[in-house]
Each structure stands twice: as C-alpha cells, then as structure tokens.
Amino acid sequence: MGLTANSTGGGAVDRGLHIEKSTPDERVVALAGNPNVGKSTVFNELTGLNQHTGNWPGKTVTNAQGRCLHNQTPYILVDIPGTYSLMAHSAEEEVARDFLCFGGPDAVVVVCDATCLERNMNLVLQTLEITDRAVVCVNLMDEARRKGVRVNLEQLSENLGVPVVGASARSGKGLQELMTEVEAVASGRRECRPARVRYLPVVEEAIRLLEPAVAAKLGGRLNSRWVCLRLLDSDEALRETMTEHLGFSLWTDPEISVKIEQAKNGLLDHGVTEDRLKDILVSCVILRAEEVCMDAVACGKNGYSRRDRKIDRVLTGRWTGIPLMLLLLVVVFWITITGANYPSELLSGGLFWVGDRLADLFEWAGAPAWLEGALVDGVYRVLAWVVSVMLPPMAIFFPLFTLLEDAGYLPRVAFNLDKCFHKAHACGKQALTMAMGFGCNAAGVVGCRIIDSPRERLIATLTNNFVPCNGRFAPPHKGKQNGCRVLTRKKKRLNSP
C-alpha cells in the first residue's frame, strides 16, 4: 500500500485514496481513535457537509475526508478507521497504522473517551511511538462528569508530553480549542516531547543494538525506535508496506539483517521468543497507560469501579456466567416470539383484509384469473405475509439486543463463550454474530466483519447461516388461517358461473 505525493502542494495517495491540496498551505490532519469514542462526531462537527467518503483500495474499509477552515488556514481532515491498537490484526488496524506511518499527515488527533480514558491510552501511546505531531482530544467530558469521573487535562498533557484538549463534540464544546492546538502542532510552533513506552531491559538492549544502523538507513523518514520494534516483531504485512514506501527492504539489507539476527539471538538467550515478545510489548504499553492515567483521572464515586467488579464476578463467573447468559437469552427469545404474536396477528389481519378488497376489485373489473393470481396472490399476499411474519419479531429482538449492548452485557457473553469457541477453532466474537443471527441471518453474517482472522471470519460466516432467525418461528395457525382464506376465495371464484 504505497503513498506518494499527488497535488499542487503535496498530498497523500493510498493507491486510490487521493488527498489533494487545493493550496500549498492546506494541512492534512488524521483523526484516530477507538470505535465509539465520538471520533466521527468530532469529524462531522468540524467539517459540516464539506466531506466525502470512499473505500481504502484493496480493503472493505470506508474512509471519510472533509475540509474545514480555522484562523484562515484550510485543513483536510481524514477520518481513519476506528481501532483499538496499531499492532495490526485486521484490515481496519492496518489502514489506520499505514496512514499514520506513511500518509504524511501534518498532525494527528487521537480522540479518547473520557469515561474510560485508561483503555484509550493504549492507542495514544502507540501513536506517539510513530509521530511527535499529535494532539489528544478527550471527548465525552459531559458524560464523564455525569458518571463522577474527573480528568485533569493539564496533568495528562504533562504526562503524555503533547497537548490535551477536553471536548463534548455533540454540543460542539472544545472543538475550537482543539483546532487551535492542532494549528500550533502542525505549524511547528508547539514543540512536543511525547512520553515513550519503556520496555523490559532485554528488549531495550535489542533496540539499542538495532537503532543506529536503522536510523542511518531511514534518514529521518520514519521513527527509528518504532521501526526497530517492528523489525523484531516480524510483521509480514508491514514488511511489504514499508518496503514499498521506502523503496528498499530493511529486512534484506546486509548490515541490518545481521543486527536483527544478533538482537533476536539476544532475546532468545533470555527466553524471549517471538510470541513472548508480543506479550511483553502489549503488557508494557498497558502498564504505561495505567501510569499515565494514575494521577490524571479520578473517580468521584468511590464504589463506581468496585460495583463493576462485583457485577463482573457474577456475570462472568465460572459457575454463574453461563447459566445467567442462557437464562437471559431465553427470556429475550420468549419476549420476542410470544410478544411478536400480537402485532403479527394484527398486521396479517389488516394486510390480508386489504388483499381481499384488492381481489374484490379485480373480480369486479372482470380481470382474468391469471392476472389476479399473479398480482394479488403472487405479489401482494406474499409481501403481506413476509411483512406480518418478519417485521414484528425483528422490531422486538433488535431493540432488546441493543439494550444488552448498551448495558455492556454482550462483551461479557463473548468472554463467557470465548474458550468454548476456541476449542472448536473459532473466535469468541462469533457468539455475538450468532446471537444477532436469531434476529436476522443477514445482519449476523454482516456482523462477522468484527472478527480479525480471515479463517475464523469465514467459519463464522458459513456457520451463521444455520442459526434459525425469527422469521422461521412463525406461528403455524396464521399460515393455515390465511391459506384457507385464499383457497376459499379460489373455490368460490371457480364455482361461480
């Protein structure tokens, strides 16, 4: 996935992702963040209707680009896919990482959720390993206040070494201050000294061994420390992208390949295999995120976190997790199936009554029987039957499913079933897509895109079709009743002179 200049004043092109500057002064700003932190809301508020969307080439991932003006300086904002990590395991994560590394943005805005800031710090710290030109936007400050969460923005900025701005994007608060900081960082007036993640001594020694040779080859085009970590991490997808971007391969360079071999041997001497190295890198980032938030985030409600832990112990407990999950799903299915009977009966009664009147109209007009059969019985009654059977259960199930998601229960379902699915060589996230399939198989299959591994995603897509959706639970008496009604009308029509 290469990136080259293609505009009057320079710009990024990602094999079809064209970011063309209308003037040389226009600056490119990337918007990064975890899913559901309000990143798109920030983007929409800043760009208004001056935006367009498209697909990243080679990926089924949507991107949005828009323009905005701040202090007479034009900006192009690129809303990159939401991701939890830049240690890419999915198409979205690869796109986000590659644009931050090779897209050449003048600044990066990392949008965070103020209500769970520590979790969002993982992406912030990984972004700061790639670029110094970053601004952290702590969104949903109004939600945090309602939950009793207090964020010391100045302390957080000091801990991270980059500007931090609080915002409530839905009401537009803090966005002008955000663009002011973006302007200072993009223009170079604000010097940033980002906090670095410190890894175990054995990993740091491997980085020190590699970095001089790597830095000399890169010539300042990429962060040499981050590249060293990726060389040790053996990321095949990144290897192709980096080689295409640089025009040469670091992995096959004689001097660097020798250094890589020495660094990996040093790691192995301390029992650090490739898998163990990945675990170490992730663990150190998480610990650093905790350290960054320790004195910058406070919870006014002392029992807030403790209450969540108590709930988790019940909902994900070894002896209570599965039974409670099954009980809750049975209740949801019972409400859906039983509750759908009444609106379904009303809909079918009303729609089939209209169908009878249409049949009367055709009969009064003297239309041939084949025309009435094609239009009334073949088109209208089939459509009426599908609507009356499918719409009510879907209209009940999906709101209930959404309530479970908003309450935070669905991730706990995936956690409970993860081990079971792994024993079947599938992904635990498939539990969510299968549950969604009870409402509609099409929605369940589309939901399989949340699964990172292509193999496990294919397994989920194929097996999701075997989940019986609500349309298959249609009460049989309605079909008999409406079918008998149609047959009675046919017999009367045939017996009439």
Question: Can you describe this structure?
Answer:
The chain is α/β, with parallel strands linked by helices. Helix content is 59%, strand content 11%. It contains 19 helices and eleven strands. The chain has a seven-stranded mixed beta sheet, with helices on both faces. Strands 1-2 form a two-stranded antiparallel ribbon. A two-stranded antiparallel sheet has the order 9-11. β5 and β6 form a beta hairpin. The longest helix has 44 residues, at 321-364. It is globular and about 90 Å long. The relative contact order is 0.07. Residues 1-16, 53-60 and 476-480 have low confidence and may be disordered.
Helix and strand topology:
Layout: E1 13-14, E2 17-18, E3 27-33, H1 39-47, E4 51-55, E5 62-70, E6 73-79, H2 91-102, E7 107-113, H3 117-130, E8 134-139, H4 141-146, E9 149-151, H5 153-160, E10 164-166, H6 175-187, H7 201-218, H8 224-233, H9 236-246, H10 254-269, H11 274-294, E11 297-299, H12 304-315, H13 321-364, H14 369-406, H15 409-423, H16 430-437, H17 441-446, H18 454-464, H19 476-495
Parallel strand pairs: 3-6, 3-7, 7-8, 8-10
Antiparallel strand pairs: 1-2, 4-5, 5-6, 9-11
* Helical segment count: 19
Average pLDDT number: 80
Approximate helicity band? 55-70%
> How many individual β-strands?
11
CA-atom Rg in angstroms: 29 Å
Shape: globular
Strand order of the largest sheet: 4-5-6-3-7-8-10
- N- and C-termini, Cα separation: 75 Å
Portion in beta strands: 5-15%
By oligomeric state, this entry counts as: single chain
The biggest sheet, with number of strands, parallel, antiparallel or mixed sense and barrel status, is:
7 strands, mixed
Low-confidence stretches: 1-16, 53-60, 476-480
- The SSE string, one letter per element, is EEEHEEEHEHEHEHEHHHHHHEHHHHHHHH
Please identify the structural class as seen in this structure.
Answer: alpha/beta
